[in-house]
Design brief:
The complex is a heterodimer of chains A (274) and B (443). Chain A has helices at 2-28, 32-37, 48-94, 100-112, 115-128, 135-142, 146-159, 162-170, 175-186, 188-204, 207-212, 221-229, 238-272. Chain A is mainly α and 274 residues long. Chain A has two domains: 1-46, no CATH class; 52-272, Orthogonal Bundle (MetI-like fold), CATH 1.10.3720.10. The longest helix of chain A is centred in the N-terminal third of the chain and has 47 residues, at 48-94. The two termini of chain A are 36 Å apart. The model of chain A has no long low-confidence stretch (mean pLDDT 90). With 443 residues, chain B is an alpha/beta fold. Chain B is 44% helix and 10% strand. Chain B is built from 16 helices and eleven strands. In chain B, strand 1, helix 2 and strand 2 (70-75) form a beta-alpha-beta unit. In chain B, helix 2 packs antiparallel against helix 13 and helix 15 (398-414) packs antiparallel against helix 16 (419-436). Classes of the chains: A mainly alpha (274), B alpha/beta (443). Chain A binds chain B through residues 32-33, 35-37, 40, 59, 98-99, 102, 120, 123-125, 127-128, 130, 132-133, 210-211, 213-216, 223, 226-227, 229-239, and chain B through 2-3, 6, 17, 20-21, 24, 48, 50, 52-55, 75-79, 82-83, 87, 90-91, 93-96, 98, 257, 259, 262-263, 266-267, 278, 281-282, 285-289, 350-351.
Chain lengths: 274, 443
Amino acid sequence: MSRTAAMIVMLVSTVYFLLPVWWLFTSASKTREQFGNTNGLVFGDFNLFQNIGQLFAYNDGIYLRWMLNSVLYAGAGALIGTVISAMCGYALAKYRFPGRELIFNVVLGGVLVPATALALPLFLIFSQVGATNTFWSVFLPSLVNPFGVYLARIYASASVPDELLEAARIDGSGEVRTFFTVARRLMTPALVTIFLFQFVAIWNNFFLPLIMLRDESLFPVTLGLYTWNSQVNQIPEIRTYVIIGAFVSIIPLVIAFLSLQRFWQSGLGSGSLK
Amino acid sequence: MHLTRSMRIVALGVASAIALTGCASSGGSTSGSGAAACAPSDGKVELSFTSWIPGIDKVVDLWNAENPNIQVTVQTGPNGNGGTYKNFFNQITAGNAPDLGQIEYDALPNFRVQDGLENIASCANVLDSKSKFIDWTWNQVTFGEDNAVYGIPQDTGPMAMYYRKDLFEKAGIPVPTTWDEYATAAAAIRQQGGYITNFPQNDVNWFAGLVWQANGQWFDSSTGSWKVSLTSPESTKVADYWQNLISGGLVSKVPAWTDEWNNAYNTGSDWTWISAVWGANSISSGAPDTSGDWAVAPMPQWKAGDNAAGNWGGSSTAVLKGSKHPYEAAQFALWLNTSDEALTALNKEANLYPATKAGLSLPVLADGVPFYGDQKIYDVFAKASSQVNPDFTWGPTMTQTYADVADGFGQVLGGTGTLSDALKTGQDKTIAALKAQSIPVVQ
């Protein structure tokens, strides 16, 4: 009985979360005429691949450029950001030094500051050094992730035993090598979590690129689609591209989650054996 | 001990950041004072130009090919109110604004009040170009000041009436030429099961276009301080007129620019749209099944025999504060908005309708349009363009005014209050917003 109830709740929430995605999928597969005059949740003529072809060809393929930019901002940003977070968290968990708690509390305070509030100050700072409207103006601020540091510290102090580090030191391993060979492996589930969170956060980050970037070829896909959407009144044809573009842009996120959650589960599982 | 040292470092960092910011703002204000002289620069000049018009880079390429010494780089972003205006203000503060920016007429006063524009009146050819432009557009970029030009008009949105010719004929309803006839037709169409049009909650600038046609004003700055008159007799007349249609259930409440709205036109449930010239494309793409059934007639008039048109939309190309090359920027802006090749390209890429008198007879605007039964619709708009009241002033806080009036309009469509109430609220909130920015207001 309670099992049935639980299943129903899960089913309802699944439908609730997937319905907009389904709408996006059916709408992306329609011709422009059918988009306006057919039911949003039912397929029209299946035109998805022609639509995607047109999207990729429009305006000299600027959409592909945006996707590439997003993958670069989010992929490289999350990767380097995760390494930084992991090293910070590990250092805060495993080394004793004066000011450790102060630094950790400052980092913890950083979790509470919304990224949106920092965008304008960042713009003014980057203006001072003449670096607005560059790749770095979006990439560098994306590397910082206080929540990642927090998570890495908590996980490192729980999952990396001091005895193991001691043994590595006795065997002659340097501190950096110990981190990358011993600690990194033990921290993998936390690192995957940090990577995923940061990847999604950078992928969805919209306000910072909006303020920083003017050159269309540097836009991430979120800003590009928003820009198109604001031009719909002028060029109604773009509406179709916004829909298809939105659909295509969620695919990398889906891939990232599906492929990385494997590590997530296996990591948590192996941790429980200890 | 260590604690205090690290805190000292933090404090030092903060102090230097403040010092740096101070430098930037003082640097920005000194560079803006050289508006009197406008001389060409030596050597090769590079200009940046921010615009959200799709395909404008292709138009600029034409200029770059012909002017190797004045190269223009196009920057882009979302439309003005979607973020680009805020970006302009941020950039002006930081001292790295583009040389040229696209600014809609209704946003220009905001930039003027915030001192964000260069006066290019002393740049060669600028004042001489006045006669080329449609009268009302020139007034938009000069604000009626003497020896001042703050931008070059780019495009306009003269208004007319799109209507379903076939449905009017079939139902035997005469095509309205006055607003009285329009209301009569609205009732007749309702009996046929359709709606004459929708009342859009959020297109407050559309409503302003109707007030403009009725010879009304919302703002006046001729005395040096701002007079707000959203509740002027003309404005109230327009509001009461549409209030009657809404109360009588004669107009639909479908929000504009939605699928529902497109569908209402596509299925023939909405019969007319009072709209600007650029709306021609919105209908043809939103209602593809009705191709050939539409036609364009002049806007209904308040008095039979009158010839007044409103305007909805349009932009200028302005030289932003801090540009080091106002002369070159002005020459580019003039070329972009007066030369046949640029105007033709702008029309092809983005359906822009020129702001010059000569531009209205461009060859691209002379042909019949198949979607409108091969009618030469641009002839109607060219005529409307000459009938727009030359004196209409926008306020310096239009984003806020639009939002507040739209809130009121939304309540009316939801069944509470009237359109005049909404204007009254908009009036009060606009005055409050002006005062909050220390902009002088006369009541």
